[in-house]
Amino acid sequence: MEQTRTLADDYSPLTLAFIGDGVYDLLVRDYLVRQANRPVGELNRRKVALVNCESQALFAKDLMPKLTEKEQSVYKRGRNAAPKCTPRHGTVADYHSATGLEALFGYLHINGEQARIRELFNEIITKQDCH
After folding, report:
1. C-alpha triplet 7, 94, 123: angle, nearest 5°
2. Which of 8, 95, 103, 119 has the highest Cβ tally under 10 A?
């Protein structure tokens, strides 16, 4: 079944990841601030635990069964893109998976799918809170 093209389909996967990185980072910051009024250093430490390639790769793996066919396609386009930089922490595979997750969030954001972004982010946080 052919899917309708969207505005975000015209962007490269790395451009989607660029915007998705910001979307995901803001979601994490918002989540952490709403949990408790903590010192900024502690907030940043907790943020880094959720916004790094290793964590994002695990979250992407957990989300895969919940993604639509189109969302999986966007994730894979982002994962398979060839970023110019290499990870300082984590593996190249984790970095590519994280890029795929960020591309997915960017894709959804550009298409105005805020409810879906929130739904997927809630899946991530629920899984994270269980650990």
Report:
1. 65
2. 103
Domains identified in the chain and CATH numbers: 13-129 (1.10.1520.10)
* Residue 33 neighbours by CB under 8 Å, 6+ apart: 43
**Residue range 25-45: mean pLDDT, rounded:** 94
Which three-class secondary structure string do you get for the chain?
CCCCCCHHHHCCHHHHHHHHHHHHHHHHHHHHHHHCCCCHHHHHHHHHHHCCHHHHHHHHHHHHHHCCHHHHHHHHHHHHCCCCCCCCCCCHHHHHHHHHHHHHHHHHHHCCCHHHHHHHHHHHHHHHHCC
Say which residues have a Cβ less than 8 Å from residue 3's Cβ, sequence separation at least 6: 69, 70
Task: Tell me the pTM.
Answer: 0.89
- Cβ proximity of 75 and 101 under 8 Å: yes
Return the structure tokens found at 92. 């190249």
| pLDDT tens profile 63-72 | 999 999 999 9
Of the residues 9, 10, 21, 25, which is catalytic?
21
